[in-house]
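User: Sequence recovery, please. Input:
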């Protein structure tokens, strides 16, 4: 990021006065703000364009901004996310950070503090560019910008949904993910449709990865969900 290439910052905020004030502060720093006032249009903007930082409200038309974090990140966005919300209790901040926010600032906010936090996020992002463009797990390489997966020199062909699934697994590697978490992050469904759509897609993704890799990286945790862990060796029955 250079003076000729100012930071692009997405503001997802339904209060017009707050959005205008935040945009004014950002422009004063030489950054380029883009404003959306609904959760759905905010998510679409985050996935359709490259932003350095997303300033995300919680109580938005269309839902709670914190529920969109996983979807934005699984969709390939490398933006740092700052939650800016009137919900400022410790439990609220903890929930936002646990769900993937990079920082959390309560309203009403102090203008210099907001700018300082955005600057800190921009510095963090600059240090993470290489990591966020390519995720590597041994021979497995996930290229987020190109939306491609390679094992060594071999390209592994995935559907868009399978790629989104793999990204979400990879960003949460080592953690068991439930079917409902996958539905929310990858399908944007906040309820169980009582179908096997998750199992079908995970099964297809696992078969493609197993065919290309020496050992499995996707594991079923019976009664819990699925685990992406390239270092976990499968249990051999009878041993």
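Assistant: Recovered sequence (239 residues):
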């Amino acid at each position: 990021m250079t003076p000729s290439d100012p930071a692009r910052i997405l503001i997802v905020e339904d209060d017009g006065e707050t959005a205008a004030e935040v945009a004014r502060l950002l422009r004063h720093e030489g950054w380029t703000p883009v404003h959306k006032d609904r959760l759905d249009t905010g998510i679409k903007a985050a996935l359709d364009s490259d932003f350095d930082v997303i300033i995300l409200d919680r109580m938005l038309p269309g839902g709670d901004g914190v529920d969109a974090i996983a979807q934005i990140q699984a969709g390939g966005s490398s933006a740092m996310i700052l939650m800016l919300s009137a919900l400022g209790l410790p439990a609220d901040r903890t929930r936002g950070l646990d769900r993937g926010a990079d920082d959390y600032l309560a309203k009403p906010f102090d203008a210099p503090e907001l700018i300082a936090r955005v600057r800190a996020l921009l510095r963090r992002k600059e240090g993470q560019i290489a990591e966020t463009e390519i995720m590597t797990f041994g021979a497995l390489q996930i290229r987020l910008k190109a939306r491609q997966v390679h094992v060594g020199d071999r390209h592994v062909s995935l559907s868009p949904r399978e790629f989104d699934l793999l990204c979400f697994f990879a960003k949460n590697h080592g953690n068991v993910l439930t079917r409902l978490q996958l539905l929310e992050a990858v399908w944007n469904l906040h309820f169980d449709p009582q179908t096997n759509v998750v199992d079908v897609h995970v099964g297809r993704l696992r078969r493609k990865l197993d065919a290309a890799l020496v050992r499995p990286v996707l594991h079923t945790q019976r009664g819990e969900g699925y685990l992406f862990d390239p270092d976990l060796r499968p249990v051999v029955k009878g041993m």
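The first strand starts at residue 8 and ends at 12.
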